[in-house]
Specification:
Alpha-Beta Plaits, DHBP synthase, 5 domains, 30 strands, binds zinc ion, binds fe (iii) ion
């Protein structure tokens, strides 16, 4: 080749999730293969490659980068520029000195890769070895104690690498080059099974016993990547019902793990986008339409089932060595506590209820429950963001360094700002639970050291009694309080990089409003600094306050009373037969006299009311059961909708009136449910139309827990897009309160500027 053709130095800047995922050695291997000279280096802003080559070669090089990028990486952009000519003797990985302090990317955990699964059947020191991993797969976040990401700073520290592992670890041409958790049967972690008072250490016997138990109605606690899980055969009603008892969980569906995608298709309807997500290395639980093949206690009457595919080598071993096709795999906790991560605690607590407890001796440093998603309009929508997703950063349009957003209360995640990146914590849970609140505090302090983060501004919810708010006030730094629904909308704006006035539609359960009432169906004109509330659903009293969330029938009574006065007691409503008449009269009196009956515009409360009124969910056994049952009831292709009244606030009294008539006429509940959902959608669209006319804004941002409802989100997106609105909804973080901290963070950062 003529010298002048390769006489150019190209500077290639690769951005996205490219650090801590084996990107540099990957680049190195391509360069060596193509006999190219230059260097690769991690910088704050991404990976920088310098390459001496021809124009043709650099094009081919970039094609290859895209084509074979490490599975856990995610290339956002590649920028190529000619730069000052440099001389290189070979191709080098440059160890950056200045960078280590500011590079804070920590990769989420990654499901075991195909190549490792093959190695598991062929490498002598890793035959069926369940802790096999490589640069492309395995534990990350859950084992990292401190940065930079190095074996010494992970819970793998106590395992000294054997000669063989070490030679792979230090060979840049090897797939296990600098794979921090690299291990084999000679030197790595091992399982231990606690069964009938005995501790079994023989690895083969452990697998046999675990499989034997699961095949024979047994319930086994199994240590996962980010915590313990409880497993049983998902086809065995006896076991699943017993598990329900153990977890004291009446109504909430269990997630299941299928042996493979073919099996998953046997039990659920799966479209292309859903299949892609199921198979993604993040391996979340995907909510799918159920085919009703599993034991009925798995999803207790819902029409959806949460499905995931194996993500740890041991999961594969279970299915390979048994006739099991689908197992329940539910979080290893009792009721609402955080999942157990500690071996001793698992043996002590889960051991009391499970037939065996399977542990291993690599510690979990960062807890991470399974993530949960559903797919709407072919896009992934997170319901719980944890294993596989957290703590991947979200890029921001403003600098948020030092901002700590404390989140809400019931479904908490917090969020920290590092320069123009937001790091949303893994799923924390309900802070009202003492252990969860401890987990919250502990995780904030871990993030401070992990990400070298020192807060200089706290951002909290307006609600003074949220434990997250109280936590913020214990710090001696400035605190900004943000209205709940403004934060919801801002969290979605953050995802999409919006910084302008938008129409924000927050459909939600509960959030304190600036007028002292409870809000939750808010139409806002807002930007990152401010909001104006332009419409909402009519206020309704919540007789009994917080009790309504456990007893949706109270909401039905409230709506009926406000619609009909006391005369509704004479209607032949089935749900009323479940509640003593005296209790209902007292409730109405409490509403009249304003005793413990705060006003709420929460959309979730309207769903509660209709769910109870139709008899679908009179008392609720878990958070949001009533709206979920109502959504699950839609089975018909119904286009018509119930009437409502638009005014300063939107009133659904006409709708309640029609539902009562339909119930009297024995109209099918699935039709009532569809008409109800359609009415909510229509009311939202008409309100948006009016606001758009008044304010001349075409961008609509959707957020809030009610958009977990697939029917509402899908139809609303479709219809609004059809009317030439630009619609933004959540794709990277949850639409429920777990995502709110991101919005708080952005508002805090924008406001302090
Ligand atoms: Zn691998
Ligand atoms: Zn080894
Ligand atoms: Fe909320």
């Amino acid at each position: 080749m003529p010298e002048n053709l390769s006489n150019i130095t190209y500077r290639i800047e690769i951005q996205g999730l490219v650090q801590g995922v084996g990107f540099r050695p990957f680049i190195y291997r391509i360069a060596i293969k193509n006999k190219l000279k230059g260097s690769v280096e991690n910088r704050n802003d991404g990976v920088i490659v310098l390459l001496n080559s021809t124009e043709k070669q650099v094009k081919e090089f970039i094609n290859e980068v895209y084509k074979h990028a490490p599975p856990a990486s995610n290339i956002a952009s590649v920028n190529v520029q000619e730069t000052e000519k440099m001389e290189f003797n070979d191709f080098k990985i440059v160890i950056s000195k200045s960078v280590s302090d500011s590079v804070t990317d920590i990769s989420p955990d990654i499901a075991v890769c195909e190549e490792c699964l093959k190695d598991m059947k062929s490498q002598n020191n890793r035959l069926d070895y369940p802790f096999i991993n490589c640069t492309n797969c395995g534990p990350r976040f859950t084992i990292i104690k401190s940065l930079p990401y190095d074996r010494e700073k992970t819970t793998m520290k106590k395992f000294a690498m054997c000669k063989k592992c070490n030679s792979e670890y230090t060979d840049v041409m090897d797939r296990r080059f600098h794979a921090q958790p690299v291990a084999c049967a000679v030197c790595g972690p091992e399982y231990k099974l606690y069964l009938e008072g005995k501790e079994i250490s023989d690895q083969r016997l452990i697998l046999e016993k675990t499989v034997e138990l699961l095949e024979n109605k047994g319930i086994v606690a199994i240590k996962g990547l980010g915590g313990f899980f409880i497993a049983c055969n998902a086809f065995c009603e006896d076991s699943v019902a017993r598990l329900r008892n153990i977890k004291s969980r009446e109504g909430k569906p269990f997630a299941v793990m299928c042996s493979d995608i073919i099996q998953a298709k046997q039990i659920a309807y799966i479209n292309k986008a859903e299949e892609e997500t199921l198979k993604s290395l993040k391996r979340p639980i995907v909510l799918l339409n159920d085919k009703a093949k599993l034991a009925s206690s798995v999803n207790v009457g819902f029409d959806t089932v949460g499905v995931m595919l194996p993500y740890m080598p041991f999961h594969y071993l279970i299915f390979e060595n048994s006739d099991l096709k689908v197992i329940v795999l539910t979080s290893g906790n009792i009721s609402d506590e955080p999942i157990i991560t500690d071996n001793a605690k698992a043996v002590e607590i889960l051991g009391q209820f499970c037939d065996a407890v399977l542990t291993y001796n690599r510690d979990i440093y960062n807890r991470a429950d399974d993530s949960v998603v559903n797919i709407v309009n072919d896009k992934e929508r997170l319901i719980r963001r944890s294993r596989g997703y957290a703590p991947a950063p979200i890029s921001l349009i403003v600098d948020a360094e030092g901002v700590l957003a404390n989140g809400a209360e019931l479904v908490n995640c917090f969020c920290i700002g590092k320069a123009k990146q937001a790091i949303l914590s893994q799923h924390i849970g309900d802070l009202k639970n003492l252990e969860t609140y401890e987990f919250y505090k502990e995780t904030i302090s871990k993030y401070k050291s992990l990400f070298r983060f020192s807060p200089n501004l706290m951002v909290t919810d307006l609600h003074p009694d949220y434990l997250s708010t109280r936590y913020a006030e214990e710090y001696n730094i400035p605190v900004i309080r943000v209205q709940h629904h403004h934060a919801h909308i801002a969290s979605c704006m953050a995802e999409h990089g919006l910084d302008e006035s938008v129409i924000g539609v927050a459909m939600d359960g509960t959030g304190l409003g600036s007028d002292g009432n409870i809000w939750g169906s808010e139409f806002l004109i807002c930007n990152l600094k401010d909001y104006k509330r332009v419409s909402h659903f009519e206020y309704m009293p919540l007789p009994g306050g917080d009790m309504v969330t456990h007893e949706p029938w109270r909401m039905a009574v409230s709506y009926l009373y406000k619609t009909f006065g006391m005369s509704f007691l004479d209607y032949n409503l089935t749900f009323l037969k479940h509640i003593p008449g005296e209790k209902i009269r007292m409730l109405c009196k409490a509403i009249d006299e304003n005793i413990n009956s705060p006003l709420s515009s929460g959309a979730g409360r309207l769903f509660d009311a209709v769910s109870a009124l139709t008899g679908l969910c009179i008392n609720s056994s878990f958070h949001a059961e009533a709206p979920m049952r109502l959504e699950s009831a839609i089975k018909s292709n119904v286009a018509e909708y119930y009437p409502f009244e638009s005014g300063k606030a939107i009133s659904f009294k006409p709708l309640i009136n029609e539902i009562v008539k339909d119930l009297a006429d024995n109209v099918d509940i699935s039709i009532i449910s569809a008409r109800f959902h359609n009415a909510v959608i229509e009311a939202i669209i008409q309100t948006i139309d009016k606001i758009s006319d008044d304010f001349n804004i075409k961008k609509v941002v959707l957020s809030g827990g009610s958009f977990q409802n697939r029917y509402i989100l899908k139809n609303l997106e479709d219809k609004l897009s059809g009317k030439s609105y630009k619609v933004y909804s959540h794709e990277k973080i949850p639409t429920n309160d777990a995502g709110i901290a991101l919005g708080q963070l952005l508002i805090g950062a924008a406001t302090r500027l």
